[in-house]
Structures are given as structure tokens and as C-alpha cells.
Amino acid sequence: MDQSAIEVSTTEFLGPRLAGLKRFAIGMGVVGLVLCALGLFLDPGLYPKDPTPFFHAYLYAYLFWMGATGGSLILLMIHHVVGGGWGYIIRRFLEAATRLLPLMVVLFVPVIFGLLYFHLYSGTPDSPGWYGPQAAAIPAIAAKSKFLNVPLFLLRTGLYFIIWMVLAYFLNRWGAILDRRRDIATFNRLNYLGSWGLIIYALTGSFAAFDWVMSLTPTWYSTIFGLLFLVSQVLTGMALMLVLFGWLAGDKPLTREVPRGYFRDLGNLLLTFIMLWAYMSFSQYLLTFTGDSTDEISWYIRRAHQGWGFISLALIPIHFFLPFTVLLVGSGIKRDPLRLRWVAAYVIGMRLMDLWWWVTPTFRPRISLSISDVGAPLLLGGIWLWMWATQVKDEPLVPAHDPRIEGHMLEVVEHG
């Protein structure tokens, strides 16, 4: 990475492609809005024009885009802890994503409406949820009422977002100082913040997983689901950053001067997170069926019948083995951001399928794809991408005054 890569600004590097991304995001959001409106009339609900299916679709779509935001925050903290040239390539993209946490607070409001008015956490007659009069009649759910109740649910959610936004605020603020001057004290603060921030996020993110996803089936529990949720977020964040970088900057002349090893590291990280997702998913399945209790296996039993079993089995080869094989044997793919982005785009599709499989069987005993299931991710994605493009600031593409960058510059000079 030569001196020109350090001196050029992010907006100068990306040029008009950010404007193109904004136009794409608007189109994406409009298509999603139209599909969601059609879903209101055509998706099967409890009564005509029932908006309940929209809120079911909205929840899994929200989990995906919140995963992209939270995963970016995790990756940014990892970079400040361990360094690595891979982080300098996507750091600006990660920082822009972390600044969208206030947006995710606003986008959580429909989830609250779904909770209070549209049976989002009330479950179904054959799989009751924790919100509603039916919960008191089921001892296993009633016993959790001191934790699973609306005031504490909202209080905990607000606390999660406050903590995450504080972390993002200082990561961006102190990172901006290193853009202006060499400051060892600030560098050390970022290192400590990243270290403690990862621990804090692991705790708060796990509880968010329990509240937002696991409580959809309040009689079910898993000791590993919180970690699976976090790994899924990191995988989503990494895949999205690779797609955005490959799309916006992959064929730029300046990108060709970046050492190929940095892109290989990004590809290896994507491969690592895919393997972690597979390991966590299999471990949860194994531990659940080893316990062999009705409460523990209820989540999987619902996803094993009436068509959902096909998705359960398909996730193994298409979410794990296919991208794993491509990234493991395709060293050339990992060194080329243009080809790597297609693998990352495929992973994004798999993440959407996995989250749909997490959420939707709770409300639909028989497998079906509603119009809102397609429209909600597009609607939220259009909003998220447009806001992300506005958050990409006119900053140095590479943080020139980060003390670690000098070591990477020497490495580039010595190894070409």
C-alpha cells in the first residue's frame, strides 16, 4: 500500500459510485415497499388485510440488517485489538456501519408495534408465546414472566442500544484522532476499548439473542444460541463489507496496489466465520438432542416437518460445504476482491435463509414464502444502504497516523 493510498480520501477513491449506490438503495427500498404493501392484501393472515405476516417478515429482515451493523462493530473492535492489514481495507466501511446504530433504534419501533398489537411474541395456538393471556396458563412460560415481560423487554433493548452506541461513539471519535495526528495514548485507548468492548458486546448481544429470537419459543432454551447469534452477526457483517468493497472499489486502479495478501486475509476471515457458524450450529443441535427433553428439542421438532425439514437439511451443504469448498481451494478467489464479492454475496443469501428459518416456522407450521418475506429485507436494505452511503465520510482512505500502519508500509516495501 503506497503513499497514494494513504493520502487519497475515501470519497475521492469511491468517486461517483457512492451516488450510484444511493440510487440503487432507493430503488431497492421502493421495490421492498411495494412488495410489503402487496403482502398486506395477498399474504394469508388471520383476517383480510391482516398485517401480522408483515411483522413476522420484518423481524427476520431486521435481524439481518442489525446483524450487519452489530457484526461491523465487532469486526472494528477486533481490528483495534489485533491490527492486521485486512482492517485498513474495510475500516472506513466498518466505521460507517457502526454509525447506523441510531437508525437501528428507529427501525426497531415496528418490532415493538408487532409485539404489542400484532402477536409477534404471542406465538400460535399450538406454540404459545410469552406475551398474552395464554402465557399464564402454561407453567413453563409463566415461570419466566419475571424476565419475559414487556417493560423489562423494552428496558433491556434500550440498554443494549445505549451500550452499543457508546462503544461506536468512542471507536469513531478516537479513530478520528488518529486520522489527524500520531497519538500513542489514543491508539492504546482504542486497543483497550476493543478488548473490553468485545466482552461487553458478547454479553449484551447474547441477551439480545435471547430476547429477540429465542423468546419466540419461550419453552425452548439453548446455552450456545447467544454465541451462534454473535458469530452469525460477524459473518453477515464481513460478507456485506466484502460485497460493498468489491462493488464500489474492487476494480479501481488504487486497489491493485494493495497487497493481495490483505484480500486473502479477508477471504480467510470469511472462511473462518463460516466454519464457526457451522461448528456452533452443529454443537447446538448435538447438545439439544443429547439432552432429549421435550422443551429442549421443541425448536428443532417444529423445523423438521411440513417442508421445514428440507430447509434444515439444505442449510448444511449450501450454507457451509459449498462456500467452504470454494474458499478453501480457491486461493485466487480470495486474492481478487471482484471474485471474492460474489462468494460474499452468496453468503449473504444464505444468511437471509438461515434467519428466515430461525423466525418463520414459529408462526407457520407448513413451509411457505410470503410476499412480505421478500419485501421486508429489500425495504430495510434500501434504507440501510442509503444511510450507510451517507455515512461514508471524506476521510483518508487509510488512517495514516495509526502507529501500526508504518509496520505495514515497511512490509509492503520489503515484499512488494
Topology:
Blueprint: H1 3-7, H2 10-14, H3 17-42, H4 52-82, H5 85-98, H6 101-107, H7 109-117, E1 123-124, E2 127-128, H8 139-142, H9 150-180, H10 184-212, H11 225-249, H12 260-291, H13 294-302, H14 308-329, H15 331-334, H16 337-359, H17 371-391, H18 403-415
Q: Can you tag this structure with a few keywords?
A:
416 residues; mainly alpha; 18 helices; 2 strands; 1% strand
Overview of the molecule:
The chain is mainly alpha-helical and 416 residues long. 75% of the residues lie in helices and 1% in strands. The protein is built from 18 helices and two strands. The protein has a two-stranded antiparallel sheet. Helix 4 packs across helix 16, helix 4 runs parallel beside helix 17 and helix 9 runs antiparallel to helix 10. The termini are close together. The C terminus is likely disordered.
From the N-terminal CA to the C-terminal CA, the straight-line distance is: 9 Å
Number of helices: 18
Can you summarize the main beta sheet? 2 strands, antiparallel
Total strands: the figure is: 2
Low-confidence stretches: 409-416
The strand line-up of the biggest sheet is: 1-2
Rounded average pLDDT: 87
The string of secondary-structure elements, in order, is: HHHHHHHEEHHHHHHHHHHH
Query: How big is the Rg?
Result: 22 Å
Alpha-beta classification: mainly alpha
How much of the sequence is in beta strands? Answer: under 5%
**Globular, elongated, flat, extended or rod-shaped: what is the shape?**
globular
Helix content: over 70%
